[in-house]
Amino acid sequence: MSDATPPPEGETPGTPPPGLEESLRQVGDAGKATLGSARDTGRALRRLVSADLALARSAFGRGLAWAGVAIVFGASSWLLLTGAIIALLQRLGLSWFQSLFFTALVSLAMTGLAVWRVSHFFDHTGLHATRRQLSRLGLFDEHGEEEDTAAPKPKAQHASMAARDQEKTP
User: Fold this and answer.
1) Confidence label for 87 from pLDDT (cuts 50, 70 and 90)
2) pLDDT exceeds 50 at position 148
3) Residue 147 and residue 151: Cα distance in Å, rounded?
4) Closest CA relative to residue 145, chosen from 153, 155, 134, 156
5) Domain layout of the chain by residue ranges
6) Are 48 and 129 in contact (CB under 8 A)?
7) What's the whole-model pTM score?
8) For 15-52, what is each residue's pLDDT tens digit?
9) DSSP readout, the chain?
10) Percent of the chain surpassing pLDDT 70
11) What pLDDT, on a 0 to 100 scale, did the predictor assign at position 28?
């Protein structure tokens, strides 16, 4: 009977397999390399979390600043400006209703701009990059993913749903 399996990589056909000590040394070296890789991965993840928290902190501050701008704009200068615009529109011949309506539209547009900017900056406080990396490592699962993998519905429910759908079709 001939031995048809090729020799392991790095060995020639006539070389005996490594001894127990050499095998243990190779396993130990592989373990050390794995530990070093895990340590490097942990450091990279720690740097990612730190950078993500810095981004969230900065975005939170900017969002609060924009919220402050919206409050200051809406509470102080807009009241005076609205009164002046209403008086000007009245002088140009518009009714009270039209004058108040146009100034209210401008006020709503400015409020919409402020809300958009606040929501834009608060979106950065979600730690999205950290969540992505933790999900890849299997350490963090979003709540939405658990609902998608829920147990399938029993056949009785499928049958009743199919019957209901057939009743609805003309």
Assistant:
1) very high
2) no
3) 9
4) 134
5) 20-136
6) yes
7) 0.38
8) 778 888 888 889 999 999 999 999 999 899 899 889 98
9) ----SPPPTT--TTSPPP-HHHHHHHHHHHHHHHHHHHHHHHHHHHHHHHHHHHHHHHHHHHHHHHHHHHHHIIIIIHHHHHHHHHHHHHHTT--HHHHHHHHHHHHHHHHHHHHHHHHHHHHGGG-HHHHHHHHHHTS---HHHHHHTPPPPPHHHHHHHHHHHHHH--
10) 74
11) 92
Q: Which residue's entry shows tokens 């392991």?
A: 8
Q: Which residue has the tokens 């401008």?
A: 106
Residue 13, pLDDT score: 65
Token pair listed for 71:
């409050």
> Could you tell me the two tokens for 68?
């402050």
